[in-house]
Amino acid sequence: xxxxxxxxxxxxxxxxxxxxxxxxxxxxxxxxxxxxxxxxxxxxxxxxxxxxxxxxxxxxxxxxxxxxxxxxxxxxxxxxxxxxxxxxxxxxxxxxxxxxxxxxxxxxxxxxxxxxxxxxxxxxxxxxxxxxxxxxxxxxxxxxxxxxxxxxxxxxxxxxxxxxxxxxxxxxxxxxxxxxxxxxxxxxxxxxxxxxxxxxxxxxxxxx
Length: 208
Prior knowledge:
By secondary structure, the chain is of the alpha/beta class. It contains six helices and eight strands; from the N terminus they run E-H-E-E-E-H-H-E-H-E-E-H-E-H. Helix 4 (130-145) links the parallel strand 5 and strand 6. The chain starts with 8 loop residues before the first strand and ends with a helix.
């Protein structure tokens, strides 16, 4: 059954050029429940669709400047990097902690009904691991800022086709493809997961 276009939902995706972000955009475009999708990006997506609008924003600290253009039913935060790609722990924290906080502030100011954000399995603000500690601090900060329907997804190893080559990740993905079945019972949550499956889950829980 086709949804009435007059009541279809709208979504804004932050981090649409990343592994999960690209899969999320594709899934939203295929989903008849969504009538319009806005991608806030640093660089344009090589993709055109009548439902898709792209807004280029090199500096995500200036998100509030776009306030009048980003009213929607749901915000999806797919922003994230690695310490290696960021170049330093401080730059990693700027991306993975400060940008989600800015998105949460924007969502709260606009009374966006739902916000779904990617975190990481093992996220813990008290962790001795810097990556997991930062993810945990991000979750706590976003909860403190945003008071709507908030959901976090905590994937383990993300699998899919990235634009950049990551040797360690390629090895891990190959291992998961061959031996992921060994991660059973309480260890099942550590299995690798395809980005497209994470994207579909994010859409599914955005209404809960």
